[in-house]
Amino acid sequence: MAERAYQASGRLPDFLGVGPPRTGTTWLDMVLRGHVGLPRAVKEVDFFVKHYARGIDWYRRYFADCDPGLPAGEICPSYYGSDAARARIAEHIPRCRIICTFRDPIQVLFSFWKLARRNAWTQLDFAAYARKGWETRGEGLAGWIATFGRDRVLTLIYDELTQDPQRYLDRVCDFLGVARIQLADPALLRVRVNGFSRQPRSAYLARKGRKLRDRLQSREHYGLINLLTRAGFWRLCFDGGPAFPPLDPALEAELRVKFRPQVEMLERLTGYDLGAWKGVAAKSAGARAAVG
């Protein structure tokens, strides 16, 4: 009975940062905490993809403690590429505001490969991994705009975040209708929160660590996960091996050709000049075109 009362006191998000992955979503969660309502103890509840069967009241309780005077939301990049998640969000939160941040697809792919190696999802080198049929995520934006309306979908470019994080954050705050947040912490101005340079010391250890972390997440043991983070346990599992190699220029050129049609689609949808992502000169990296 007490549990039902607690669930009923919750709320649903006013906004969602849907990704895509490897585009600065962890940084955005860090800077927004304390200025908007976010899920307690965890960044990604991942309700609309992984936990939908638990019911909407289960999701509500993650926002039960949020300040009613501030917008509440979740930053969860797995939502972006899921048609099912988008339909579920539209059903439960039809007036939700959506934040999408896009990044050079080759940088996304290279970063995601590093993550896959660290989590022991793959043992392939980058060349083999990149040729397995990876698709960039730009084409999904049309679905979010069609579902929620262009005025409720904020599109951002990762280049803007790295070049001028304050301006990037100002745009987010204005979109959410909250007071602008001043970035005084030098660490937050460096942006790269989830970047890494080394492979795991052992694929076996990484695999065991990933399974333990996933099990703890499924049981909502976020306090223990955070404790193990502070103790350095996850670094032991996922770090300490050889440095990741640099991106091969010849492979990069091949991928530029492959991704060009999808980058051009993203240009048409957003009005950004993404020439740098196509390997051609741009007015400025991620510059906003006049049609903006």
CATH class of the domain at 2-114 and 135-195 and 262-278: Alpha Beta
Calculate Rg over CA atoms: 19 Å
The biggest sheet, with number of strands, parallel, antiparallel or mixed sense and barrel status, is: 4 strands, parallel
Amino- and carboxy-terminal Cα gap:
51 Å
Helix content: 40-55%
Topology order in helix (H) and strand (E) letters: HEHHEHEHHHEHHHEHHHEH
Basic shape: globular
Describe the structure.
With 292 residues, the protein is an alpha/beta fold. It has a domain of 191 residues: P-loop containing nucleotide triphosphate hydrolases (Rossmann fold, 3-Layer(aba) Sandwich). The protein has 14 helices and six strands. The strands form two sheets. The chain has a four-stranded parallel sheet with strand order 2-1-3-4, sandwiched between helices. The N terminus and C terminus are likely disordered.
